[in-house]
Design goal:
binds pyridoxal-5'-phosphate, seven-stranded mixed β-sheet, alpha/beta, 13 helices, Aspartate Aminotransferase, domain 1, single chain, 16 strands, Aspartate Aminotransferase, domain 2, four-stranded mixed β-sheet
């Protein structure tokens, strides 16, 4: 049996209807922006392998630090013990985050980073003796992960449909804009005594269709929340580490969130790790002689030293001037492409923020995630040696920062061709 057949016998893949699923493509090697299959065919990883791989695949510097750490200390329980990579990473991350973030809490991925943030905010209110603030404010099309808490605060969609009755109550609001901002503000004011927190993806809703919105309106929402003592959680799992043109999307805000969730690009896409950070106000609400005020949360692999070492190596690369120059270069290329194809008859909308560009296809049938256009586009690009995973009729590019202008030009021209062909 070949690898595809063996896979089919034993593996259940994520986000995949296994009935009639296309064979899974065996990848044997990653080199920079390229993934290489068994036959030696190369694919540009234009979605950074689900948005995690910011510096390209098999980065030698990250690999060296990881193997060094593996031979020194591969893991240690993180309750009662600590280690250099975890402390150093926290020391380096906290000053990079906007506002005054004081503490890092480690977990395993983006969803757990969100769970931790939610538990911190719920228990914050309980610890203060307030039992009426139990609700969350979130965006209607948000995506915050796939565990139950993270699903609860995500928009209701086909992803959550089988579980909707089991999810906790959330106040959903539309993305803010000039027209609705006053309505949103009064809605928040009317609910304020019930709201524990407001969780949001700053500037861009990722899995919700790469929907972009302006910092100035988010600022207004955060301001009204903070005036109403509603804790603000910036879910920067996707936007963190340079994606939106700044190291963190929240740098583009004037108001400062109380908590941050990070993952995806954190380790450079090398291995899983999640981070939740908070300011001193939140941390101090848990300091008590009363044991019931403890945050009883942790994972077996909390602050895994190897994952922390990968993050330190990735962060060092991110902070080099060349990386920021690459981010700005990608941004400029995206702008040029946007202007070039904006008038195309099949382009319904096109938008970009930082290194992310999203093109919405004009379709006759439903524009849902389930449209057949999506599968046709996916296969079309794969045949041309490009990994793009459209969200329904929305094709987006979210590349590793080392991608060259020539590689971008190839992706752009293939998209232009697809607009004519499909
Ligand atoms: C991907 C994502 C998550 C979930 O992260 P996982 O590591 O996949 O659990 C949470 N929030 C946002 C904004 C994301 O894009």
């Amino acid at each position: 049996m070949n690898l595809q057949e063996r896979d089919k016998k034993v593996i259940w893949h994520p986000y995949t209807q296994m009935k009639g699923a296309l064979p899974q493509l065996p990848i044997v090697e990653g080199r920079g922006v390229y993934l290489i299959d068994e036959e030696g065919k190369r694919y540009i990883d234009a979605v950074s392998s689900w948005w995690v791989n910011i510096h390209g695949h098999a980065n030698a510097r990250i690999a060296a630090k990881v193997s060094e750490q593996l031979l020194k200390l591969e893991h240690v329980i993180f309750a009662g013990f600590t280690h250099e990579p975890a402390v150093l990473l926290a020391e380096q991350l906290l000053p990079l985050l906007p506002g005054r973030q004081e503490k890092v809490f480690y977990s395993d991925n983006g969803s757990t980073a969100v769970e931790v943030a939610l538990k911190m905010t719920f228990q914050y209110w309980r610890n203060l003796g307030n039992t009426s603030r139990k609700k969350v404010l979130a965006f209607r099309d948000a995506y915050h992960g796939d565990t139950f808490g993270a699903m609860s605060v995500s928009g209701r969609s086909i992803f959550t449909d089988p579980f909707n009755e089991l999810l906790f109550d959330v106040e959903f609001i539309d993305l803010p804009c000039a027209e609705n901002i006053e309505d949103l503000k009064s809605r928040i004011l009317s609910l304020k005594s019930q709201l524990a927190c407001f969780i949001f993806e700053p500037l861009i809703l990722g899995a919700g269709g790469m929907q972009m919105y302006e910092a100035k309106y988010l600022d207004k929402l955060i301001k009204i929340c903070q005036e109403s003592e509603i804790l603000c959680i910036a879910d920067e799992v996707m936007t963190g580490f340079g994606r939106t043109g700044t190291y963190f999307a929240s740098e583009q805000l004037n108001e400062k969130p109380d908590l941050f969730c990070l993952s995806k690009g954190l380790t450079g896409g090398t291995m899983p790790l999640g981070v939740t950070t908070c300011n001193s106000k939140i941390f101090e609400a848990f300091l008590s002689d009363d044991k019931l005020k403890t945050l009883y949360h942790g994972h077996s692999f909390t602050a895994n030293p190897v994952a922390c070492a990968a993050s330190l190596a990735s962060l060092a690369i991110l902070l080099e001037p060349q990386t920021l120059a690459n981010i700005k270069r990608i941004e400029a290329q995206h702008s040029l492409f946007m202007n070039k194809i904006a008038g195309h008859a099949k382009v319904k909308t096109i938008r970009h923020t930082g290194t992310i560009i999203a093109i919405e296809w004009q379709t006759e049938d439903s524009t849902s995630y389930l449209s057949s256009l999506r599968d046709n586009l996916y296969t079309y690009f794969l045949n041309k040696g490009i990994v793009l995973r459209p969200l329904g009729n929305i094709v987006y590019i979210l590349p590793p920062y080392i991608i060259t202008n020539e590689e971008l030009a190839y992706i752009y021209s293939t998209i232009s061709q697809a607009l004519d062909d499909l």
